[in-house]
Amino acid sequence: METQGAYPAAVGIAVASLTVILLVTPPMWWHIRSRNIGAASVIIWIIINNSMTFLNAILWPNDNFDGYLGQGLCDVEIKLQIASQVAFSASFACVLRALATVMDTKRMVVVQSKAQRRRNIAIDLSWCFGIPMLQMLFQYIVQGKRYYLFGISGCVPGVTNNWLTVVLIMVMPVVWVLVCATYATIILIRLYRYRRSFRTLLQNHDTSKSRFLRLFLLCIIWILGNVPVQCWVFSLSFSVPREPFDWNEIHDPEELSQIIAVPSLGMVLYDRYIWLASGILMFLFFGFGTEALQMYRAGWNAVGIAKLVPARFKGGNRSYTSENRELVMKRAVLKSVGDDSLFSMSTDVASTKDSDMKLAELDQGSTQNSV
C-alpha cells in the first residue's frame, strides 16, 4: 500500500492540544493547592481529553489503519470520553455551587466545622469523579461495538441507538448543563440582591472579587456555548430510527469484538475543538492572575531561568529572616483586629485606628532595622 503522509489537520491539532496542556497545568496545580476541587477538576478533564487528542493524532495522523488499531489504549479512552461528557458539566456545577454558597447570607458561617468540610469535599468528589465513573458502567450496558477508530481523532465509543442509550448516556450531560444554568441564575439574583455587601461576603469566605468574577464569567461563557451544543447532540439522537434493546444481541461476543475503522478524509471531530477552546478559555481567565505568575516565578527559580532575568522583573527580592517573619505575623494579627467588622457587619472605628497606628509603628521599626 502506498505510504500516506500526515494530514495537516493532524499536525495542527497535535501541536495545539500539547500547547493547551502546557498552558493549563500551572493553574491546575494552583487550584489543587487551594483545595478548589471543582476548578481543579475542570482543568484535569481538559488535560485528559487534550492528551488523548494529542496521542491519537500522533498514532493515526492519516487514514492508514494497517498497523496498530488501538487495542487496549482505545478501550481506556472510550471510557474516559464517556465519563468526560458528564464530568465536565458536573465540575462546572461544582464551581457554581461553591460560588452560590459564597453569596448565601442565610447559611453564612465564619469557619466551617470539620464535618461541614468533609461533607463539601465528599459532594465535590462525587460530582466531579464519582458520577462520571458511573457513566463508564452505563456505557457497557449499551455498548454495541468495541469502538470506532477515526483517522486523526482516534478512538470513539460505539453505543447502540435505543431508548436506554438516551436515558443512560444522552440525558445526563443535558441534566448537568441545566443544573449549571440553575446555579448561575441563583448567583445572578444574589449578586443583585446583596450587591452592597458583595465585598464583605467575599472576605468572609476568604476569596477575592477578582477570583470570584473570573470563575463566574468562565462558567457563564461555558454555559452559553455548551447549551446549544448539548441540545444539538441530543436532538441528533432522535433523527435516526430507534433500535429495540436486546441484551443478548448487543452483548454478543462477536459484535463487541468489532473495531470499525472510519476514514477521516483530513477532518477532525468537533468535540476535539471544544476541548481545545475550553483549555484556552481556562488559561485566559487564570493564566495571568497573581497566583499563576507567582507559580511561574517559582518554576523559573527552580530551573535556574530566573538568574538570566534582570532583578526588576523577578518581583520582590526580600530575604525573610526570622525577625521579618515575626513582624509579618504581628502585622497579620493586628490587621485582623481592624477587620473584625467584616464578620460582625459593624464598624469599630476606634479599634481600626488603633491597629493602624500600631502597624505604622511596626513599619517604622522594621525600616530602621533594615537600615
TrEMBL record:
It comes from the Eukaryota. GO terms for cellular component: plasma membrane. It is a multi-pass membrane protein. One of its GO terms (molecular function) is mating-type factor pheromone receptor activity. One of its GO terms (biological process) is pheromone-dependent signal transduction involved in conjugation with cellular fusion. The chain crosses the membrane at residues 6-25, 37-60, 80-100, 121-142, 162-191, 212-235, 273-293. Keywords: G-protein coupled receptor, Membrane, Pheromone response, Receptor, Transducer, Transmembrane, Transmembrane helix. It is found in: Membrane. The keyword Endoplasmic reticulum does not apply. Coiled coil: none annotated. Pfam families: STE3 (PF02076). Belongs to the G-protein coupled receptor 4 family. This is Uncharacterized protein. It comes from Peltaster fructicola.
